[in-house]
Amino acid sequence: MAAATIPTVETARLLLRPFIVEDLEDYTHLIFADAEVMRYLPQRTSTPRERAERTMAFFNDQWVQYGYSAWAVTDKVTGQLRGHCGLNYLAEIEEVEVLYALAKPDWGQGLATEAARASVHFGFEQVNLTRLIALAVPENIASRRVMEHLGFVYEKDAHHFGLDLVQYALQRVPFQGGPPFFLAP
Ligand SMILES: CC(C)(COP(=O)(O)OP(=O)(O)OC[C@H]1O[C@@H](n2cnc3c(N)ncnc32)[C@H](O)[C@@H]1OP(=O)(O)O)[C@@H](O)C(=O)NCCC(=O)NCCS
Question: Are 68 and 61 contacting, i.e. CB atoms less than 8 angstroms apart?
């Protein structure tokens, strides 16, 4: 999938679009340079800017490789970058996870749930995946709430990215004789 053909998705308040090089400064500052945003995410020795650059490139490469990945989450009205959200293939366990991170000023308004819901729809309805997982450190209550809002159910404890995590899962429910759909929470 060429960068130009990565789909965009519109929700009530957000536009999910591919990352572009112009996002680098904001992405660095809003996500990787903010210790509170990074609190429950894997720690690395690289600089916030290096991580932002690598993550943007990784997401766009994944689009090409799998036909799904994470988007830049932007405000539909102002166009401002707010964070990332989307799908990520975990080769080690052959699962697709939903992931999300938003800038701190945007927390608590249901925006992660809105973006993650669109990602789940995309995964089940456009990519035709049958199962998605979501991972979080147990203390990350906000992330767990997002999963629960979408109908994900706790499955087991897991260890990935050097972190002890809880794993939630959501199964697409097949509808006999019709197109696939999943049960909205
Ligand atoms: C996790 C994250 C994306 C949630 O974003 P958000 O836009 O605030 O999420 P939403 O508003 O859609 O939902 C958050 C829910 O958690 C709840 N919540 C937030 N902090 C909480 C806390 N400390 N204790 C209990 N509930 C909490 C909110 O009340 C809301 O639940 P509700 O709708 O039932 O009231 C955001 O906190 C974030 O970017 N964190 C840093 C990155 C990260 O941890 N990503 C996830 C990695 S697994």
Answer: no
**145 alpha carbon to ligand 1 midpoint, in Å?**
6
What residue ranges do the domains of the chain occupy?
Answer: 3-171
CATH of the domain spanning 3-171, picked from 3.30.70.100, 3.40.50.300, 3.40.630.30, 3.40.190.10: 3.40.630.30
Question: How far is ligand 1, taken at its centre, from the CA of residue 179, in Å?
Answer: 32
Candidate from 14, 104, 146 with most ligand 1 atoms within 8 A of CB, to mutate? 146
For a mutational test of ligand 1's pocket, the pick from 100, 139, 154, 165, i.e. the residue with the most ligand atoms closer than 8 A to its C-beta, is 100
Cβ neighbors of 57 (< 8 A, separation 6 or more) are none
81-90, strands of its sheet edge to edge: 9-10, 14-17, 70-75, 81-90, 95-102, 131-136, 163-171, 153-160
Residue 27 pLDDT: 98
Residue-wise pLDDT for 41-87, tens only, equals 988 899 999 999 999 999 999 999 999 999 999 999 999 999 999 99
The pair of three-digit structure tokens given for residue 178, joined into one six-digit string: 């019709």
Closest by CA position to 82, among listed 13, 5, 36, 9? 13
